[in-house]
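Suppose a colleague, Dr. K., hands you the sequence of a protein chain of 305 amino acids and asks what its three-dimensional shape might be. Before reaching for any lab equipment, you can write down a predicted structure in token form. Begin with the sequence itself:
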Amino acid sequence: MFKRYELHNHTDESDAPISCGELIRRMVAEGVDCFAITDHNTISGHGIIRNQLERDGLKLTCAYGMEYTTYFGHIVCPVLETYVPWDSIDRHRPERLFEACKRAGGITGIAHPFAYGEPFAMGCRFEMNIRDFTHVDFIEVINNSESLHTVNGPAIRWWEELVLGGIHVSACAGMDLHRVTDRMDGRFATYAEGREGGDAVAELRAALSVQRTWVSKGMLLTWHRDGESICFALYDAKKPGFIPSDTYTLTLKSREGVRALDVTAGSLSIPLSELADVEIPKLYGGEVALENLICVSPVIRKGFL
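The predicted structure, expressed as tokens, is then:
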């Protein structure tokens, strides 16, 4: 089965006019499998969320984290249960903070790397100089509160450049939820494979370790190896508000370029011999255009199949 993750959410413990209880109710109403609390530079909401989930007997899983909000960019950690100080952060050696968070059991990601802030705010754009991505689990390629073309498009392209350049880092999405009225239908979420009753946080950690996450509005483009072929298939994740398309287009991006294939029938097989060493699959509803993007799928690396 696939589980839906909402990995970037705020409450009135930092800068959002939404209480911890309201955040929980929103996630229950949306049918989310696992959500994170990622308030700015504080973990003060962890106990509030944990106590309310236990009090109400809810099976909803919370990932307890934080968002580092610095003058040089934001680092979102959907899992970080211990506060890790960041007063010595160095924009030219940010690896030290990422590594410290990982030692504390955290999951680390780069949030909205090309954002300006609303209306304009220092520090939203990621300007840290990372040379070693070893401790970076993901890049938030879609931030649903930001512009598709001016913020998310560049984030997707940056992630693709890193992947095609040999960097192993996952793609994720975030609502960056601040208001109870923020609409979640028609927006992107993060998906990972799991099992009924399984530990959703552990399953997310496992998925990120092998770069096997989906960023999707609701239709997932899945793939698996079958002998000497890669078999693609469409899977409806039943995300509330998702409107299916009449036609679907699969694209495969490699260092040699991009090719598009019709996958409206719901499945397609491609011989391994026709694939480059690294391919990035994406799904579009209709023609290939950023506004028609539905899903960014896990990267295909022939050397790891």
